[in-house]
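Incident review: delayed structure delivery

Summary: a single-chain prediction request sat in the queue longer than the usual turnaround. Root cause was a stuck worker, restarted by the on-call engineer. No data loss occurred. The affected request and its eventual output are reproduced below so the record is complete for anyone auditing the incident later.

Affected input:
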Amino acid sequence: MDVSLPDDGEAGLSNADRKRGGWITFPFITATMFGLTLAAAGWIFNLIVYLIEKFNVKSVHAAEIAGVFFGCSFMFPVIAAIIADSSAGCFSVICISSLTHLLGIVLLVLTSTIDALRPPPCETGSSSCIAPSRIQSAVLFAALTLATLGVGGNRFTVGTMGALQFDEPKDHGRFFNWFTFTWYGSSAIAATVIVFIEDSVSWAWGYGVCAAANVLGLAIFLLGSRFYRHGKPQENPLIGLIRVVVAALRKRNMPLSLKGEDYYKKPDGNANMESQTPSKIFKFLNRAALITEGDTRPDGSIAKQWRLCTAEQVEDLKILIKISPIWGTGIFLGTPLAIQMSLVTLQALSMDRHIGHHFKIPAGTMAVFAFMATSAAVPLIDRYFNPLWKKFTRKPPTPLQQIGVGQVICFLSMGLSALVEAKRLKIAHSRHLQDQVGSIVPMSVLWLVPQLAVLGIGDAFNFPGNAVFFYQEFPDSLKNTSTAVVSMYTGVAFYLSSAVIGLVRRTTGWLPDDINKGRVDNVYWVLFVVGVLNFAFYLLCAWLYKYRGGEKKDDNGNSS
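Output delivered after worker restart:
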């Protein structure tokens, strides 16, 4: 399960920092990740149910609200990574984010314990339910906003902090394997234990456990502070990329030169050979590095920051433009998956969740089956799938090939979801349950497990493949941000999922408040078709894409 990643050197490390780090920091970083993820997943996975049962929010509207906050939790890691790289550093961002997250959870505890902060209870789905007041809504959304900001701030920053502790690429790979395992493992525990406490004991106790896990994770992180490498915050590389666009526009009428010496290079002389002369692709941007009169000082430094950039900055922007279509296919894959996870919760609420006579599966726990499938599939892929692929093709799978396999499996899960929902609706209609508010279809919720398992297996290909691909292909100046970009397209997908659900509700009758009256199976079939079309576009993008240096790379980052 080892995934080697390219070494991006020790830039930004002080002499004191080079003496720190190593595997002595691993227990502290891993325990921190476990505690903070446990705290976050404990309230995230059951948010839809909390909104429906305690704040009288209509089921589909609750899914839309949850989608927005889920999206934010995946968008904020990019902002946190930029702040960590350019000013505050990873350590400060993790500490501040963890405290912000804790404050949000404390407010959630208050909403679950103080009756005045919730509307009066009523039967789920009843037309007599009273909506929350403005003050109640304000406190709830303040709690969710603070908690979401905290989750976004520490979710991938902890991973970046952990990778900073190591010099060797093989150590980076081992750390990220444990990072992924810890993330999914703690999420699975939260989706079972904490969600069970929320559903079977009380919401206050469940959120209290989340708060305790957050405090414990932060305390362990602080205990290891004397062992950490902290690194040096550097200039925000995104500002440099914006300067490339501005400089190219300002020089849009200047003729391009064929001489390499006419383009500004890094003065330290350590740039890679590939970035010494601007490439021919997206030639318009080469003007940003074209030296004209007055652009430089007598000592050779840049005189006008928004008129002249280095050739390396130009190449960095070109790399991001090349990657963007593949990143876009991730959005169109993630959006159906986000919709599927929201709808699964609604389906579970309308199905028989009993196992035996005494145990009832919480609806928010259904996601754990996907996490368990992912956790089980990751080592199996490395142990069996990759060698089998190499046996037939004589080469290990590249990151793009791994992503492609994951995409196929994921859109197949949509087709399976449609078939299961069609069966559920058939049973509901045969018993005339579509006319009964809050009715439970006599069909076991375990029917949803196969589609979630298939989804989890697809994610076992997708997530590592995307993480390795973006880490390998991103500019060196944006290595820390590269892993957060995977989170970013997931965030965009959650936003789009809320918009798509709203659009479907306005234009069709497929998603009413009582899904027994709707056609959720049609929604899944549409998502299946979107997945097929997105995969076709992905194949085109992957076929046209050339890795950095023009060489193909296997899943360990080695040239083949």
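Verification: Confidence is low (pLDDT under 50) at residues 1-17, 270-275, 551-560.
Action items: add queue-age alerting; document worker restart procedure.
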